[in-house]
Automatic annotation (TrEMBL):
Responsible for the 2-O-dephosphorylation of xylose in the glycosaminoglycan-protein linkage region of proteoglycans thereby regulating the amount of mature glycosaminoglycan (GAG) chains. Sulfated glycosaminoglycans (GAGs), including heparan sulfate and chondroitin sulfate, are synthesized on the so-called common GAG-protein linkage region (GlcUAbeta1-3Galbeta1-3Galbeta1-4Xylbeta1-O-Ser) of core proteins, which is formed by the stepwise addition of monosaccharide residues by the respective specific glycosyltransferases. GO terms for molecular function: phosphatase activity. The lineage of its organism: Eukaryota, Metazoa, Chordata, Craniata, Vertebrata. Interacts with B3GAT3; the interaction increases the 2-phosphoxylose phosphatase activity of PXYLP1 during completion of linkage region formation in a B3GAT3-mediated manner. Residues 1-19 form the signal peptide. SUPFAM superfamilies: Phosphoglycerate mutase-like (SSF53254). Belongs to the histidine acid phosphatase family. This is 2-phosphoxylose phosphatase 1.
């Protein structure tokens, strides 16, 4: 079966219905299983298409929803970069031919794409923290380079930015019309795909922004841990988690058989094929409707893809059960969460700097944060995933502040470990800000067990 046939067969599986009052009936679909709209058994191709996040109609979202007496104070956005070319190649096969130049009238289309290209071409003198100033501001190769953002990836984040503009600027007036550089905080890793994704979202959010007001900081670590990256216990959790992954793979005889079949097709040892991480390249074929590769020995096909993708889903399920990844996540996500609540605390004091923060990151950034927050049902971060922290002030009680957490437009606040119980006890529509502060300052370490009460102790505790 070719990729297009599979896509067509799946059309009936993708829910598009809308509930009353214009609120999407999928408001919980993306994070919590919905037996009505989702396949009864996890379908690997369905999951892969959600991961592709192919741009279509503008999605409805729950960002910015609050009772009228609440005032939006600050917003903190964590994104995964948009659709990219693979980082790995299936050995001895032709690379998928994807064009990474931006063409305004080519699909996927966005009404701001042409203006975005024009604006990026004027930003060549932009002042960013080194080494970001040496990166191209938008994708521009006729044949994509490894890991390069595609036009799909740009459009995904133009859509994200426009959606956030409509909610946070037009509706809630988060920034004044004459906003200043110090009201934004922008940070990205040193990959072109993350910088370009951040710029695409920013352009959708602040069209035709003044280049002199934009400054991206460089983050060397995918965990955004800044000066707090040395954490031996976190690395021990990761090693144990990788061992768990390895043992699960060894148990899967169907997976080994599939890798063996694919290795014969491309005429390399099975070990070499597995090391080439074929799922990364196959997802690109699926997302871009390009046939899987063939050789004189046969073709890689959808059945091969389903076996590998199904194993990935099983791995995620076991990962949640075994809790090793949770230990890694609590320590891995702490620095960025600590930085975020520091920014929020300054906003509660009436400070007007850094009201909108954007971290342009990777799946390996968002996954630990989601896990640490207790969002165990969250899907693996799709291309252009967004995780948002909103800080609100109660106008009737100005000293009270609340938070909302949203993942891909879904309000997941009361799925978080720090606010599940509050939701059961209180009718308030949001979570008290102090719950999040207590979680980051204390409860994250309690969840690790042991007697650690701070990040440094938890990272260096003996006898783990």
């Amino acid at each position: 079966m070719d990729v297009l046939t599979a896509l067509l067969l799946l059309v009936h599986l993708i829910p598009v219905s809308t509930a009353k009052n214009g609120v999407s009936s999928k408001s919980r679909k993306r994070i919590m299983p919905d037996p009505v709209t989702e396949p009864p058994v996890t379908d690997p191709v369905y999951e892969a298409l959600l991961y592709c996040n192919i741009p279509s109609v503008a999605e409805r979202s729950m960002e910015g929803h609050a009772p009228h007496h609440f005032k939006l104070v600050s917003v903190h956005v964590f994104i995964r970069h948009g659709d990219r070319y693979p980082l790995y190649v299936i050995p001895k096969t032709k690379r998928p031919e994807i064009d990474c130049t931006l063409v305004a009238n080519r699909k996927p289309y966005h009404p701001k794409l042409e203006a975005f290209i024009s604006h990026m071409s004027k930003g060549s003198g932009a002042s960013f923290e080194s080494p970001l100033n040496s990166l191209p501001l938008y994708p521009n190769h006729p044949l994509c380079e490894m890991g390069e953002l595609t036009q799909t990836g740009v459009v995904q984040h133009l859509q994200n930015g426009q959606l956030l503009r409509d909610i946070y600027l037009k509706k809630h007036k988060l920034l004044p019309n004459d906003w200043s550089a110090d009201q934004l905080y922008l940070e990205t890793t040193g990959k072109s795909r993350t910088l370009q994704s951040g710029l695409a979202l920013l352009y959708g959010f602040l069209p035709d922004f003044d280049w002199k007001k934009i400054y991206f900081r460089h983050q060397p670590s995918a965990l955004f841990c800044s000066g707090s990256c040395y954490c031996p216990v976190r690395n021990q959790y990761l090693e144990k988690e990788q061992r768990r992954q390895y043992l699960l793979r060894l148990k899967n005889s169907q997976l080994e058989k599939t890798y063996g079949e694919m290795a014969k097709i491309v005429d390399v040892p099975t070990k070499q094929l597995r090391a080439a991480n074929p799922i990364d390249s196959m997802l690109c074929h699926l997302c871009h409707n390009v046939s899987f590769p063939c050789t004189r020995n046969g073709c890689v096909d959808m059945e091969h893809f389903k076996v590998i993708k199904t194993h990935q889903i099983e791995d995620e399920r076991e990962r949640r059960e075994k809790k090793l990844y949770l230990g890694y996540s609590l320590l891995g996500a702490h620095p960025i969460l600590n930085q975020t609540i520091g920014r929020m605390q300054r906003a509660t004091e009436g400070r007007k700097e850094e009201l909108f923060a954007l971290y342009s990151a990777h799946d390996v950034t968002l996954s630990p944060v989601l896990s640490a927050l207790g969002l165990s049902e969250a899907r693996f971060p799709r291309f252009a995933a967004r995780l948002i922290f909103e800080l609100w002030q109660d106008r009737e009680k100005p000293n009270e502040h609340s938070v909302r957490i949203l993942y891909n437009g879904v309000d997941v606040t009361f799925h978080t470990s720090f606010c599940q119980d509050h939701h059961k006890r209180s009718p308030k529509p949001m979570c008290p800000f102090e719950n999040l502060v207590r979680f980051v300052k204390r409860d994250m370490f309690v969840a690790l067990g042991g007697s650690s009460t701070n990040y440094d102790d938890a990272c260096h505790r003996e006898g783990f």
